[in-house]
Structure formats: structure tokens, C-alpha cells
Amino acid sequence: MLILIHEKGRTVEKILLDGQRIDVESANLVDQFWYLTKKYALHTIIWVEKKYENYLNIKDLGSIFSQNNLMLSYAIESQFLPDSIGYIDQMPFVNPNYNIKYPSWRMSTDVGGIKGETAQKFFPIFKRINDFGYLLNSIAKIGQQNSIFCYSQPNLLHKRASLNFRTFDASISDFFKFVFQFYKTEWLFVLLFCYMKYERRFPLISFLKAFFNTKYFEKTEGVDLSDLLNNKISELDQEASLDVIIPTLKRPDYIEQTLKDLASQSFLPKKVIVIEQDPDPYGVSQLLKVTQQKWPFLIEHRFIHKVGACRARNMALELVSAKWIFFADDDIRLSENFLKFAMCEIHRLAIKSLNVNCLEEGCSTVFPKIKQWGAFASGSSIVAAEYAKKCVFRTEFEFGFGEDTDYGLQLRNNGLDIIYHPKVYITHLKAPRGGFREPIKKPWEVGNILPKPSPTMMLLVNSHFSEFMKKGYKIALFIKYYRRQTIKNPFVYIHVMKKRWQISEIWSRQIDSQTSLFDEI
Fold first, then answer.
1. Exposure winner among 130, 320, 324, 341, fewest CB in 10 A?
2. Which stretch is the leader sequence (predicted)?
């Protein structure tokens, strides 16, 4: 373990190697960092502001940095990028929960760490960056797309009492430069507009200067970290057990095929929980013939007359008894080694949630690398039951959109990260009939002016977005939707959209206070 102690993210104070002080080659923090990552490539390089040196949780650092592809940080007092990054980015990673380990590429110079050889992979790209905070955030932003797992990790410290966050180190010029370098160029215009509208500032010089910098956005896939992942072939955990949750609605043929695929697995589930729904109070189950067949696993079949995927999954969660849960759709196809390979990869990567690659027939993989995932898929994910059962699919989102994202954010706020794996894949058949996305008339779908966004999406925004993220989402929505509607007078369009936004706000509050809104459906 090598500890690089610095002052205000600029100069080197001292360096400790396994507790012993070693020579400083350069007082410049960035130069010294690159030197150490090369010379001590197999060591974890810890950086810490000198006034927090005594707060370091030295005893546990070895176990905290248990993998080569980790980059951790914690903002004790200062964060580099301001929270207004939410104007142009509404992913969970920009709005970390600082009370727990939380996936985030936003790095602080206060305290953090990365393996030397991992950092060195980025030297050819970022060797000209001379600001330490800017460098750390650059490595994390590109690294997260290339299999580095980045976290805000409070356990880097053994005590946090009386620590006061938050100041932001980046200048307005650095902020605009960062957005230009690491996002699509159109987001720079959105950022400028948000500063003008919401902050009554007009940073035109910073905006213009940003265009004279190197664009790193295209280099997202340009770093190969495959050799740093744990490439040891993992044996299946002999104590691993898995239950499968499948909600279904009028798809008996598809559910039978899915059960057959599960029955042919080289690693069999312990139990398959099928929640069959039919809104007809006099309807009878279409799955009795299927569920009464002989299967190599227990089938828990429930037939109910209240519909909704959220309600079904919550009911199924109460029936789970295994250590792992496979959240599955009823219209998928699985190769015979799917579950075994998935569980082996979970063990190899030391993770608690896997979002598998869900491919439609004839489609190819879009994201080719293992990485932290900003979403959650309730029809193609494997999650440790101890975390999954702490969360619920909120019925406020029933028959709308946003329940998956909300559940994923609940998981993250319980200390879980969601990892996407391109090589663990299923085929989604996209059944043309049945299911939970069939059109259902919502109470707000009447009148001349309809809400925009949908009230359930507005509920998600109000529940989880910061004020910066909410404002940025609103601006982006107004811009993107303009091309898809018929009002071409921009002033009339803005007037109408403001009304639609207000209507959505009203409905989202009503949904939030009345969870039984759809009980009669």
C-alpha cells in the first residue's frame, strides 16, 4: 500500500510505502502520481489531503481494494465537479448517496485510491492534464465505460464526525471544458442555457474556450482493461441457490417454453415462482396444465385477479427462499449454460447484482464491455436476495414507466451496485400479445392537454433527481420532444409544454399520495 499525502490537490507533502516514508521525486502532485503508478504498478496508490491523513482507515484498505479494477474516492469536504453536472447528466452516478458505498465516477482529491497499473492504462490519453482533480475525474469517467468499478466509499475513513462537505474545486472554465471533452457537444449548449436560465449567469468565454480542447468522448471504448479483471475461471459456489421470479399475463405458450429452458439448465434453479394474473374475476388459470407437469424444480404458482407487474413481483419476492433471485420475463429464451455461467461470473467479479445482456432476435450487442450499469431491468437481472428483499416495486408506477429505474435506485441506496455483462445474454422474444404493456386507459389520458412527461416518470424525477437534474431533464425533454410534435411556433410550443409539465406535476403528486389509484383496473 502506497499513500500519497498532498496539500490542496496541488503539491506533494510526503509519501508512505507500507508505513515507511520514501523520497519525493516531484513536488507537483500530477507528476508524482504518474511516476508512482508506473514505478509501483502492483501497489494500490492512495491519495489523501494532509489534514485527513489521520482519518484514513488503514487497517481495512487492503480488503476495500480487493480487485484491480476499482477506483474509489470520498468527498470529505470538497468535490471537484459541481452538482450542476446534473443539468446535463441524469444518471445515478452523478448524484451519489454519501452515507454508503455508491457507484459514482465523480472523484474527490480529499481521499481515494486506484491500482497503479490500472491508472497507467490512461497515461497515454491524459498525460497532458495538469490538474489532479480534473485528472481523477477524467480517469473515472472513461474508466467506468471500460470495466473500472468507481465508487464513493465512506469506509476509506475510520471516522467522519465533524467533517463538513461541500465545496467544489473546478472553475467554471474547467467545468465547461470537462463537459465538452466527455459528453456529446450538444450538452455544452444545454449547460450554457441552464446557467443563463437558472443561475442568471452568462459564462460565454468559458463556453467558447471549451471548443479548443481535445475531445475525449470518442475515446470511450479506447482503453483495454481486460487484463486487469480477475480472469481466473471461477468455480460455481456450491452453496449458491437461486429462485426465479416470473410474472405473466395470458401467455401460456411462452411461459411453458421459458420453463422448459429453465429445466434444461446445467445449474438448476431451486424454485420458479410464477405469478399469473387475469383481470377477469371469473377467469380461470391458463397454466394448470403447465404447472402440473413434472419439473426438476419446485413451482410456486399463484393465480390472482389484480393485475400489474409491480404487484406480481412484490408477491413473488415474499415467496423467495434462495440466496439469489433471477428476475425474468415470461417470453425469453435461455441457453442451457446461462444460469451456471451467470453465477460463475457473479462469483468471479465479486458482485451482488448482474444485469444480463437482453437481446431481441436478430439484434447484436450494443455495449461490448462489462461495466457499471445506470439502469435496472426487472426482466433480465440476477440479484442477491438479501438486497432484493429490502426493496419493493412501488405500485405507484403500476401501468406506467419507471418502476425498474426506481427499484434499481432503491438497490443502490441499500449499498448494491448493478453490473452489466455483455457475454451473459438471453433472447427476448417480445411476445406480440399479452403481458403488462397492453394499452390501459389512464385517468390522466383525457382532455385536450395531456401531461408531459408521463406522471409516473415525473414521480420518478421528483423521487430521485436533484434539483439540478430535474431542471436539466426538463430542458432536455422540451428540446427533444419539439422535433416529434406538430407545433412549430417555438413560443406557442413552450407555452403548451409548460402547461403539460404542470399537469404532470399535479398527477404525480396525486399518484404519490394515492397508491391505490389503479386498484379498480
1. 130
2. none
